[in-house]
Automatic annotation (TrEMBL):
Residues annotated as transmembrane: none
Species annotation: Geotalea uraniireducens
Pfam families: LigB
Annotated keywords: Dioxygenase, Metal-binding, Oxidoreductase, Zinc
Protein name: Dioxygenase
Family (UniProt): Belongs to the DODA-type extradiol aromatic ring-opening dioxygenase family.
Annotated NCBIfam families: PRK10628.1
Listed CDD domains: 45_DOPA_Dioxygenase
MF terms (GO), sorted A to Z: dioxygenase activity
Cofactors: Zn(2+)
InterPro entries: Extradiol_dOase_DODA, Xdiol_dOase_suB
Domain Extradiol ring-cleavage dioxygenase class III enzyme subunit B intervals: 22-204
């Protein structure tokens, strides 16, 4: 598929139960992939794989990882048997221009498969996962992501999975009303994303209390930076999902290209 430029996606994945329950978000994940060609392969960047030093999965058959607890047994029985792609992993390592280690032990965590099983339920497209290197600053993550841009011209769908606002300690189980600070930060970050202002998005602590509450730890936020860094100057950015669940989880999602 060389010559076919694929879009890039950031998806707010939220509750793992969207993988098996019929929700408006699951329906939107199914719909968005009808807007562009079927990819040759998928590169996933999930909030749920952090490492010291960047790593990329290289196995032929990545395992389905059930990295959660307290959910119905039905969810833990889900399998997403997509093949891997050692060739894509090696191509990524070549483009990265910095050390990205090969990993044959991880697989696909729920940040990836809970969304992909809605998008591509046949699980017949090769999927590779890139980890989030804890040792890199947001600006360094942006730089690494930009080096991966050529993959889009090679038929690869680059897919970031996280949440723009993600604070599990302040979930509202009984009262789903979003916190004012969650609404504030979701709106501000969306405005900056649509404007392509990566420098301000990377410097999110400068936004004060709303950012501190929205991003107590940044692993769910960083996949958004990866996807936005893949944008070319003339490409549109579309917010195709919005909404805040349980008070403090933004489901905001973006399509680039």
């Amino acid at each position: 598929m060389t010559g076919t430029t694929m879009p890039a996606l950031f998806v707010g994945h939220g509750n793992p139960m969207h993988a098996i329950e019929e929700t408006s978000f699951a329906a939107a994940w199914r719909e968005v992939v009808t807007r562009f060609p079927r990819p040759a392969a998928i590169l996933a960047i999930s909030a749920h794989w952090e490492t010291d030093g960047a790593r990329v999965t290289t196995m032929e058959r990545p395992a389905t990882i059930h990295d959660f607890f307290g959910f119905p047994a039905e969810l833990s029985r889900v399998q997403y048997p997509a093949p891997g792609s050692p060739a894509l992993a090696e191509r990524l390592r070549l483009l990265a221009g910095a050390e990205v280690a090969a990993d044959d032990a991880w697989g696909l965590d729920h940040g990836s498969w809970s969304v992909l099983r809605r998008m591509y339920p046949a699980a017949d497209i090769p999927v590779v996962q890139l980890s989030l290197d804890r040792q890199r600053s947001p600006g360094e993550h942006l730089a690494l992501a930009a080096r991966l841009r050529p993959l889009r011209d090679e038929g690869v769908l680059i897919f970031g999975s996280g949440n723009l606002v993600h604070n599990l300690r302040l979930l509202r189980w009984e009262d789903n009303r979003p916190y004012p600070w969650a609404v504030e930060f979701d709106a501000l970050a969306t405005q900056l994303a649509l404007a392509g202002d990566l420098a301000r998005l990377a410097d999110y602590p400068a936004f004060g209390e709303a950012a501190r509450l929205a991003i107590p730890t940044n692993e769910h936020y960083l996949p958004l930076l990866y996807v936005l860094a893949l944008r070319r100057a003339d490409e549109p950015v579309v917010s195709f999902i919005e909404g805040i669940e349980l008070g403090s989880i933004s489901m905001r999602s973006f399509l680039i290209g």
